[in-house]
Amino acid sequence: MSKVTQNSPVPPFVRRLRCLRCGTEYTPSAIEYVCSCRPNSGSDLGTLDVQYDYAALSSSLSAMRFDTSGPVNSTQGIARYAPLLPIADPQTLAPVAVGGTPLIAAPRLAQELSIKRLLIKDDGRNPSGSLKDRASAIAVSRARSGGFPIVATASTGNAAAALASQCAASGQTNVIFVPHSAPPAKIAQLLAYGSHVIAIDGSYDQAFDLCIQACQSFGWYNRNTGYNPYMTEGKKTVSYEIAEQLAAHTGRDATAEQPPFVAPDALFVSVGDGCIIGGVHKGFKDLLALGWIEKMPRIYGVQSEQSDAIYQAWRKDWEIPRPVVASTRADSISVNAPRDPVKALNAVRESQGAVLTVPDSAILNAILPLAQLGGIFAEPAGATALAGLAVAVAEKLVRPDETIVMINTGSGLKDVAAVMEVTGGVAAIPPTLDAVFAATKEL
Ligand SMILES: *Cc1c(COP(=O)(O)O)cnc(C)c1O
Ligand SMILES: [Zn+2]
Hints:
The chain has 15 helices and 13 strands. It is of the alpha/beta class.
């Protein structure tokens, strides 16, 4: 068994990595994944936080800020924020840019919820159809900078599709561990992108552990969520974009004596492992540290009642969640032992948000108003954020006059079976005008 000693080169503004469990600090060249204070399994990983030199960043960026010469867009993607990313060289990013997704005003949905202002960050419009592209872009960049021949990940489906897409564009060989039960559309993506697919006759949690063993044994670069600390750094770019786009929506004058970007009052996002919500938090924390937003948003995580490990930990004030037996229909957030719980719980606790749970029926039903009132087609895990927002409105956790952002984390095309289930599908009619008349007479 050959041990990996190689790490990816150190990017300019990353100063150290700090273990969120024991506080040990490492120089970036000394470590790539988790602190050795914890065993490599379950929720209790020695997860590392990537720490930047904000003072150095501030002084070198004050003149140019980010390269925000044009609006947030999908051609440039997250490369716009290169100085705040753990990449040694933007040239190592795949030619298929990720991020730069739209922040869309949803007045009809806001009215339905009796709130004044709701905007939807539609990350289903990433190249592979989910927010995971933001993290996989970083993984591929780091693997290429470090000269790794193979990148691997375990995934409920979307992280895999994201890695497969970025690898394909870069010509990077990759091995993907997925549960065999992942929705067919997600497995189809992997096969289309030409990944080496290992479909495990078991759970995501088993795929996760097996992937770690394989990477350690064979010297592959490991993209696993929660295990690879840099995935948070990719996902945080969603917050940079939201704050930048909200400033544009708000008509803020960039030359005035106020921070250039704007944070919403409250933000809603679904939670499985907890990496996305941790990334969302990190993005706003970066912006606050740089003085580019005035205040943090309250961050609300939403889980299914049938996969609620983070919720239980939050409610009972545990440091680390206890595993649950997850069975939610929202496969992207179906997790027994969350792999990034510390960052997730910190996000909610430090921002004065909350973790909410909703039944699977509410998740599936939320797909429809999101599509019919917002014009956005989400997979179940994406619609989960809207189901949670509805609960928050009912429980008066948000005020009607607040600016609220929800993130759609994945495209509805990822899981069309869920929609056929919730709508009941459509019956065939004979190809005659009479039949069309009969079918439309109620319009
Ligand atoms: C992965 C994923 C989530 C949950 O993200 P975590 O980091 O696991 O909490 C939510 N929605 C979609 C579509 C996803 O792919
Ligand atoms: Zn530690």
